[in-house]
Every structure is written in C-alpha cells, then in structure tokens.
Design brief:
Belongs to the FPG family. It comes from Paenibacillus whitsoniae. InterPro entries: FPG_cat, FPG_N, H2TH_FPG, Ribosomal_uS13-like_H2TH, Znf_DNA_glyclase/AP_lyase. The protein is α+β, with helices and mostly antiparallel strands. The protein has two domains: 123 residues, MutM-like, N-terminal (N-terminal domain of MutM-like DNA repair proteins); 129 residues, Orthogonal Bundle (Helicase, Ruva Protein, domain 3). 28% of the residues lie in helices and 21% in strands. The chain is built from seven helices and ten strands. The strands form three sheets. A four-stranded antiparallel sheet has the order 1-6-7-5, with helices on one face. Strand 9 and strand 10 form a beta hairpin. The chain is globular and about 55 Å long.
C-alpha cells in the first residue's frame, strides 16, 4: 500500500506534469471508486484547471479551479500512470482524467477511491488523521507517544496516532532505531524515544529522496519512482542477511500485521 513517501513522490512528480493544466474530459469504468454518480463527476471536473496538488498522510488532493477537491486514497494495489494513449500500461483503469493528448490513469482502485469534495468537506473527511511525522519536534513526539500504550507496530501504523506510516516504513523505522516492533510504547526509555524519533525522520526523508518503494513508474522515463525498494533493510527481506549484524531477517505476524525485523540487533 502506498505510504507517505510514495504519495509525496506522486505529488512532486505529478505537480510538474499537470499543475496548471485543464482537465479536458474524464472516463469512469468503476462507479464505486467515486462518491458521486459518474456523470456528475465528469461534469464537475471537465474544463477545470488543476491549481495545485497537496498530500495529506496517504491521501493526494487535487485542488481544482472550481474550488472543489479530488481526494485520492490508493489503498492496497492502487497506482497512477500519466502519459499518452500509446504509452498506457496494459491494465484496467477505474478512472481516467484527460489533459489534451495525455491522460492520468487511476489503476487498481478496487479498495481505493477518488472522491469529489468541497474544501470544507475535505477537512471533515481528514479530521481524524493524527499529526504527520515531519510536523513534530521531539517534545511533541513524546506527548504523542504518551497517548498510546500499544506496541510499536500497531502505533506507527495507526493513522489516528501518526499519519502516513504503514507496514513498510514502520519496520524500516524500528530497524534503524534498533527497536523490536513488539516493544510497547511505555517500555521505551527517553533515549530510545529519541532514537525512534530520529529514525522516523531519516527513513521517511531517505524514502522520499529515492522515490518510495512502489515499482511501477508514473510515466515513461520515470527513473525516480520505486528507487527505495532496493534500499529497504528489512521490509520484505525475510531470510536475507541483516546489513548490520549478518543474521537472517525474520518475518512474523504481529497484531495481525506482517512484520520484518532482525531478532539479533533489534531489542
């Protein structure tokens, strides 16, 4: 599932592709991906300019010249592609936005969605999100930690606790911090809290720098998207050698979530 770095990569790259452009038309093949009828959606977006793109946690927001906002959540299996009809991947598209010769294809929206809202509605939709990692200083981070008593895996992936982190980056953050994902928040010393805070920032910044871990390119010639996958230390690396101590990476289920860690150098 795309997390904060993947959606930030989309925001940065798509802004260069479509910001300021006018949507010349739209197609919908899966009405359940929308929150309005397809005809109403097409009428609402056609002829409107994309003023800017914004990311909130794992959501991407398309601000239109009509003062309406498209709110995208890709969920599990969703991704985007921008290009000409000749360049498009051989996949099924749930929604397509046309930009006079190029299209933005929304792919894999079986669980995800593209909803149309007013600006006021957006705040209501997203108000349950917890603070984003980059908005917190260490003292504020400690206050957030004090509000929950669960293990690290559950806490870091809880979008009402901290927003934007999911399965991949929770494991990578715990590894860099040298902490087991099964550790409970109250068990962390202040020094461990600081390690966790610093690891959170460094992992997410590195992942954004290298385009996140999702492999599918946003457009033909995209050399950024997915570059972090090869840099993951533990996520999806079961049985591989730990880059820090040489022991094999362990896979386990923790609170019904898949989890990768090094049992030797995380404690």
């Amino acid at each position: 599932m795309p997390e904060l770095p993947e959606m930030e990569t989309y925001r940065q790259q798509l802004s260069r592709c479509i910001q300021g452009k006018t949507i010349s038309g739209a197609e919908v093949t899966r009405p359940k991906s929308l929150n309005v009828e397809p005809e109403a959606f097409i009428n609402a977006v056609t002829g409107k300019r994309v003023l800017r793109l914004e990311r909130r946690a794992k959501h991407l927001l398309f601000h239109l010249s009509s003062e309406r906002v498209l709110v995208l959540h890709l969920m599990l299996g969703g991704w985007l592609f921008y290009g000409t009809d000749a360049e498009k991947p051989d996949r099924t598209f749930q929604v397509t936005l046309h930009f006079q010769g190029e299209q933005l294809y929304f792919i894999g929206l079986r669980l995800g969605y593209l909803h149309l809202h007013s600006q006021a509605e957006v705040e209501d939709v997203l108000h349950k999100l917890g603070p984003e990692p980059f908005t917190l200083g260490f003292a504020e981070f400690q206050q957030v930690l004090a509000s929950k008593r669960s293990n690290l895996k559950v806490a870091l992936t809880d979008q009402s606790f901290l927003s934007g982190i999911g399965n991949c980056y929770s494991d990578e953050i715990c590894f860099i911090a040298g902490l087991l994902p099964s550790r409970t928040l109250p068990s962390l010393s202040e020094e461990e809290q600081l390690r966790l805070f610093e690891a959170m920032g460094s992992v997410l910044r590195e992942a954004i720098q290298y385009g996140g871990y999702m492999a599918d390119p946003l457009f033909v010639g995209d050399s950024l998207t997915g570059g972090f996958d090869a840099k993951c230390r533990v996520y999806d690396r079961e049985g591989e050698t730990c880059v820090r101590c040489g022991q094999p990476i362990v896979f386990a289920e923790l609170s019904s979530r898949k989890c990768f860690y090094c049992a030797s150098c995380q404690s």
